[in-house]
Amino acid sequence: MLILISFLLLLQMADCVSKVELSVSCANLLDKDVGSKSDPLCVLLESTGGDKWAELGRTERLKNNSSPSFSQRLRLDYHFEKVQNLKLGVYDIDNSSSDLGDDDYLGGVEITLGQIVSSKTVTRPLQLKKGKPAGKGTITITAEEIKDNRAIELEWEAKNLDKKDTFGKSDPFLEFFRQGDDGKWQLVHRTEVVKNNLNPTWKKFTIPLQTLCYSDLERPLKVDCSDYDSDGSHDLIGSFTTKVSDMQKTAHGSPVQFDCIHPEKQKKKKSYKNSGVVSVKSCKLITQYTFLDYVMGGCQINFTVGIDFTGSNGDPRSPNSLHYMSADGLNQYLSALWSVGHVVQDYDTDKLFPAFGFGAKLPPDYQAAHHEFALNFNPTNPYCQGIQGIVEAYRMVLPQIRLSGPTNFSPIINHVASIAAGAAQANAAAQYFVLLILTDGEITDFDQTRDAIVRASRLPMSIIIVGVGPADFKAMELLDGDDGVLRSTTGESVARDIVQFVPYRQFADAPQAALAQSVLAEVPNQLVSYFKTRGLDPPKSQAAAKS
């Protein structure tokens, strides 16, 4: 059982990885062949750290072509939660060797996969080396996600199931199996258990068509109906086989019913008919959009930063302070900011990020503590140019403020939520908001913060909290809600999980990308779940539907 659970978890994790296909074309390549044009080929490499690159694929070689459009696509895995640095190099191939060392280099480009998918199509000048253009040569890269985004929405019911429990009726549930290419049955879905009921109706569920039947509407499926036992020794009530094309008949008004057959009973009794009848109550094929559908369709991810300047961080002039700058000009706050912001900035076209501080007293009077002040001291325009702009504003403001308190999260959450609420009024999947809070964890307004989070859970918004320093962060873990449903002070539960918390110390000795992978891993599903709940398709899909 443990092995099966581990396998299913791995399968679930693998399903979260999107496959992306890149198509490449070039224009005005350098001519390296005497008396003819070059014979170009494009190679795709991904950074493995430092100066090391791993080759992921190559296009075909096109003879005598200075403006090639390659038909061979380049495929790779896409991970939102990390920066994937890519290098595309174009070579003039004049021999049959796969070694590119003896071929002429026509130019290349370094780019992140995030930059490509957020723009969908990118054109860049080719360079022979940094700062040296390859003549007038350019490269155009287009990204497309490889997937079947169809899903099937099913609702099932049963009548007159066999009674399996001695002191009650049966507790039935369904298990769905698809037939693999090897003929073996593979479990793909299990319904909930309906207690003490011989005529159950199970909850409607949605499953990707690729998961259910490899997107093959004629692929055999097996359905087992069993009686649940708490010790795991479930009793089979009966089974039947079907296929999606049969289930779809219910959409046309035809009853789709199956005799639930128990093979042993069928062998023993000639008069045996069935152990109940299981029916498809509804069957509907739907489009299931992914994170990439929204991003590549035009949805902008808006990134906001909030930095904790409360007294519990310690005097920034002291080496013991969490705000103390090391010899390399960094501290835990800046390291966390660089790690997460470096990923998110690729998905915001203008690269202008509002940045705020909280918990400090400001010049010139240094009177009351401010719980939401612009990091650049410009309240009417709190935007910083890129992550570097936030870093510069942080370094500028740090010597001028006095750390104070209390530590209130709710003002900055409510600030971003008010903007997200305005975007939600547009009734389009055009904008999503990510708030990054960097804090030492000594939260004061816990009740107001959870109220703010519950309200924000109904908006296009996610909250990432990175805990800096040695605190135990128990309050932060409660806000995360991974161990239970977060509720407001009035008992209202969150509409969806929008908070992700991680303590920075867990990543202190890890590669910089590790923190970003951890805190950003949930954002794609949070974005999709919000727009799905609102019934909003990606912007370009909506436009196509209207045309």
TrEMBL record:
| One MF term in the entry's GO annotations | calcium-dependent phospholipid binding
The source's superkingdom equals: Eukaryota
The terms describing its cellular component in GO are: cytoplasm; focal adhesion; nucleus; plasma membrane
List the Pfam families: C2 (PF00168), Copine (PF07002)
- According to the UniProt entry, the coiled-coil residues are none
Task: List UniProt keywords, sorted A-Z.
Answer: Calcium, Cell junction, Cell membrane, Cytoplasm, Membrane, Metal-binding, Nucleus, Phosphoprotein, Repeat, Signal
Q: Provide the leader sequence positions.
A: 1-16
Provide the C2 domain boundaries.
1-126, 135-258
Main localization category = other
Where found in the cell? Cell junction, Focal adhesion; Cell membrane; Cytoplasm; Nucleus
Which GO biological-process labels does this protein carry? Answer: cellular response to calcium ion; positive regulation of tumor necrosis factor-mediated signaling pathway; regulation of canonical NF-kappaB signal transduction
Q: InterPro entries this protein is in? A: C2_dom (IPR000008), C2_domain_sf (IPR035892), C2B_Copine (IPR037768), Copine (IPR045052), Copine_C (IPR010734), VWF_A (IPR002035), vWFA_dom_sf (IPR036465)
Question: Has keyword Membrane?
Answer: yes
> How does it associate, per the subunit comment?
Monomer. Interacts with ERBB2 (preferentially with the tyrosine phosphorylated form); this interaction occurs at the cell membrane and is increased in a growth factor heregulin-dependent manner. Interacts with SHC1; this interaction may mediate the binding of CPNE3 with ERBB2. Interacts with RACK1.
Please describe what this protein does. Calcium-dependent phospholipid-binding protein that plays a role in ERBB2-mediated tumor cell migration in response to growth factor heregulin stimulation.
Family of this protein: Belongs to the copine family.
Protein name per UniProt: Copine-3
Species of the source: Astatotilapia calliptera
Q: What is the lineage of its organism?
A: Eukaryota, Metazoa, Chordata, Craniata, Vertebrata
